[in-house]
Amino acid sequence: MRHGKKLNHLSRTAPHRKALMANMASSLILHKRINTTLAKAKALRTYVEPLITKSKEDTTHSRRTVFAYLKDKNAVSELFREVSVKISDRPGGYCRIIKLPNRLGDNSAMALIELVDFNETLLADSNASKGAEKKTTRRSRGGSKKATTAAESSATEATETSEEQAAE
Questions:
Q1: How distant is the alpha carbon of residue 33 from its chain centre?
Q2: Bridge pairing between strands 95-100 and 110-115
Q3: Could you tell me the pTM of the whole model?
Q4: Domain carrying residue 56
Q5: Fewest C-beta atoms under 10 Å: which of 10, 78, 94, 166?
Q6: What share of the chain is helix, strand, coil (3-state, %, to 5)?
Q7: Among residues 33, 16, 45, which one has the least CA distance to residue 122?
Q8: Residues facing residue 35 across a β-bridge
Q9: Structurally, how many domains does the chain consist of?
Q10: DSSP assignment, residue 136?
Q11: Do 70 and 25 contact (CB within 8 A), yes or no?
Q12: Do the domain assignments include residue 7?
């Protein structure tokens, strides 16, 4: 029975799984987003979020602990320099998983996993919506009502003036 076993083994031996998670975590930290299968993305989130939490406190002990998991000096320095600065005020939930269409070869469920505070398009959209409201314009086939009423009023004024000039 598998009661109480929450770890997804991903059909791999323990050393293979540890190496896979370490490589994927360092790729996620260096590139800020990666495409992978949904099962690997969910497993990676549980692997990398405690490391990001540990990076909030920049001590020698926390750097060594994170290096023991990541095994990549560049990823550790990137995590402590750039990532920890951006997520310092966030209490958790550093990764976002977005489901993608299934893979063509084997129909496997795919997902995009990314660090939350590093998606520039979403950050730009949220900042724009906070700063100023969008102007709502409605367009119809005949043009706007203001334009048609302005054109009608100018046409009636022109006919009135031409009638007045003809009467004089």
A1: 9
A2: antiparallel
A3: 0.73
A4: 14-120
A5: 166
A6: 60, 10, 30
A7: 33
A8: 112
A9: 1
A10: P
A11: yes
A12: no
Residue 23 lies in a domain: yes
> 37: which 2 tokens?
């299968």
pLDDT at site 37: 98
94 neighbors 51 (Cβ within 8 angstroms): no
- Asked if 97 and 112 count as a contact pair (C-beta separation under 8 A), the reply is yes
Q: Tokens representing 114?
A: 């990314």
Distance, in Å, from the CA atom of 47 to the CA atom of 41, rounded to the nearest integer, reads 10
Q: What is the reported pLDDT for 14?
A: 95
Identify the helix (H) or strand (E) that includes residue 95: strand 95-100
What pLDDT sits at residue 153? Answer: 59
Does any domain span residue 38? yes
* pLDDT block averages, 10 residues each, the chain of length 168: 90 97 97 97 97 96 98 97 94 96 97 92 75 66 59 59 59
N-terminal to C-terminal alpha carbon distance within the chain = 106
Asked whether residue 99 is domain-assigned, the answer is: yes
